[in-house]
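Sharing a chain and its predicted structure for anyone who wants a worked example. Both blocks are below, sequence first, tokens second.
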Amino acid sequence: MKTLNTVLFTTSLMALGCSGQSAPVGSSTPKAVGPQLTAPAPPADGPQLAAPAPAADGPTVASTGTIRTPALVSAGMTRIQAFVPTQAGATYRWSVTNGTIPGVATNAAVYYNAPASGAVGLACTVTVGAAVTTYTQTVPVVPVMPLTPFFYGSGFSADSLANTVVGGPSANVVSYRFQARYATALEGFRIFFIWSSTKSGYNAGLGGTVRVDLHADDGTGAHLPTGPALASTSYGNIIPQNNFYPKLTFPNPVALTGGGLYHLVFTNIDQDPVANYVSLDTLYTNAQTAPMQPVISDAAFAVLFKPAGGAWRVRQGYTPTLELDFATGTQGNGYMEVWSTNPKAVSGAASVRETFKVSGPSRNFSKVNVRLSRTSGTGPLTVRVEEADGSLVDQVAIPAAQFPQGVSTWVTATFPLSHVLNTGVAYNLVLSCAADTSFSAFPMRKGRDKGFSNATFFPDGHAQFTTTGAAGWQGWDMWGTPNLTFSDLQFAFVP
């Protein structure tokens, strides 16, 4: 775990700069995380199911072929887990190219370290009697993304949702770790519960009763919850209440220290938490990067969990969907769906953009971070900032080599000069490329209609796409509904 940085938040997106302010603040189940469930598609007013969470003693990674490991990793990252399915009577022999295995390489799971650049090549030879099978996987290595706590945009990244069971067979306890932006009382919070009547791995019975305790941070490098509860509240009969996004309040709220780290700890206190449990739902990225989100440190915003008899640990790739309501303001992440099941192509006449009108103060920028994947070709991605009438502010071409093929990643467009996004002026951030190359992008849905505050997402605009050039711009489509205006591309303007 990294040490706490001096500045961890942006004033907006929750620490997460979604509202675009720029001043600083002070399981469960035996299945591995996979792509979002898509059949049947949820209605516009229903929750998007997360992929069932991995087993409490398994890695929090995406499934990438037979070897399961992150889809990409940061340069120099250590103790990255990879595993293959266990088989009775099998022996395992792992090897790695352009990387190292610091420990045992003869189990179904292994830890490896990433190099400074290139790609890690993993191989595992599994022998069962006379049958010998070798599985391979290549993992791209990307540069460490600088932490950019001051930004204007959506800021977050996600590829899907993923759940963590509260209680259940593993008796999980879950923590949402956060850094308080305000030095006032934390009066309440909004979260995202998930359950399903058709899919396993999310819930059982009536969902149980979840007690939420506010704890201080222990101040160690691991940043774990400690001490007596500062405030508590409970929420029971969860599934019959049929509210996936409840707002809970503390009967006796306490003032927090601005800039301090705290934990919301979720415990299932049902008389039978194995028969009655529910899941918390969060954003999930297939990558294992440092930091997990480029706009906020891992110390300042993370999901932790602890199974019965186990120790606390961070869920790599998980970002809380959480609104924190203080007496004097709100912070958090209000993105609650990821539309990766409906990506749009960027190629030739097909482009994507974020269209927006600046609220609040004007913003300076010299860079724009964008997240998408390259699907084919070797041409550059053009990142263009323009006014609503098409007048150019500036544009930059990002070489294709900065995008590992087939994997969404953050890249930075650095402009030769600094520019200003003026308050009250409408702009477009346009992503395009030549027809001989193709990229793919998808947005995140903001939870405005679920009760999440504008302070927890980017409120100034929405994602659009076109397949026919400048005359064809429209909002994203989902569930058979066209021209939706409540999603954002994954982007951030940076000073």
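Comments welcome. Residues 1-17, 19-45, 53-65 have pLDDT under 50 and may be disordered.
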